[in-house]
Specification:
Helix 3 packs across helix 4. By secondary structure, the chain is an alpha/beta fold. The model has no long low-confidence stretch (mean pLDDT about 90). A hairpin with an 8-residue loop joins strand 1 and strand 2. The chain has an 8-stranded mixed β-sheet with strand order 1-2-4-3-5-6-7-8, with helices on both faces. The chain has 10 helices and 8 strands.
């Protein structure tokens, strides 16, 4: 599956049609009003990330480390209506801050107070990383992406050496395959996409990006009972990227952090610690 270079964003008519069909097939979510962080997460400050395409900014928050920072971690949320507020529980932010990391969250386009979607979301992830790398004064920048958040980070990290450590939790190897598995009635549409729009379909296949991830350390976490992101695919992604893998028995999609929170956090902290000192892109 690996090649000399990762797949490039689709262009021309194939790219145009692929984007529109992919957008039409994406799960619909009712947009909810943005929720501020809870009192327990104080102190925090608002973050506004400029976009190179699309209207508006990407809204986020900065949660400073409890001690002199050893680095920073960007948390990217799953495809859920409450966006970045997904991270305001389950203890990820508090644990990372206690370990000495500045923590950043952001609403991807179409969520919370961020602007509307304009194309594939990997471009917006790249905008966030370019913005944050100028704000991290000490230590490397890391990334922890959950489900679609981690999915859209893959193409960026395959072409950019901008984060040191990466953790991917409950990430499907292909969003269209995830939908085909979980929404059986729509399988004919996904068959059309795969057979007619080969270039965009290949670009969306993380098994083609994983061998090229430009990170020092990487880990994949998934649930044994995830109906869309199969454990076998998670193991294959980890093997292709040369990273660690944790499969949690009895966990479904977004369930690993609920079933085995200590193990999930341990893997994440170990991954970031293993990447300390790694030189990534820095602002001029």
């Amino acid at each position: 599956m690996s090649a000399l270079a990762p797949p490039q964003p689709p262009t021309g008519l194939s790219g145009w049609l692929g984007l529109r069909l992919f957008t039409a097939l994406a799960p619909r979510l009712a947009k909810t009003a943005p929720s501020p962080p809870t009192v327990e997460l104080a102190p925090w400050s608002a973050l506004a990330v400029p976009r190179r395409r699309g209207r508006g900014e990407l809204a986020g928050y900065h949660f400073p480390a409890e001690t002199d920072p050893r680095g920073a971690v960007l948390l990217l949320h799953p495809w859920l209506p409450f966006g970045q507020s997904y991270f305001f529980r389950r203890g990820r932010i508090a644990t990372l801050r206690a370990a000495g990391y500045d923590v950043f969250t952001v609403d991807l386009p179409g969520f919370g107070a961020s602007g509307p979607r304009a194309g594939l979301l990997d471009a917006d992830v790249e905008d966030v990383l370019d913005h944050l790398v100028t704000r991290v004064a000490k230590g490397p920048l890391h990334l922890w992406g959950v489900s679609s958040g981690g999915y859209w980070a893959h193409p960026v990290l395959a072409r950019r050496e901008i984060v040191a450590g990466a953790v991917f939790e409950d990430v499907s190897h292909h969003l269209l395959e995830w939908s085909r598995r979980t929404v059986p009635w729509s399988r004919p549409l996904y068959f059309v996409f795969r057979t007619i729009l080969g270039e965009p379909y290949r670009y969306l296949d993380l098994k083609r990006h994983a061998p090229h991830l430009r990170v020092r350390a990487v880990a994949y976490i998934g649930g044994e009972d995830d109906p869309g992101a199969w454990a076998a695919d998670t193991r294959e992604l980890a093997a292709a990227a040369g990273g660690e893998v944790l499969i949690v028995p009895g966990a479904g999609h977004l369930g690993a952090i609920k079933v085995a929170p200590e193990e999930v956090v341990r893997v994440a902290l170990a991954t970031f610690a293993a990447a300390e000192g790694y030189q990534t892109e820095r602002p001029a």
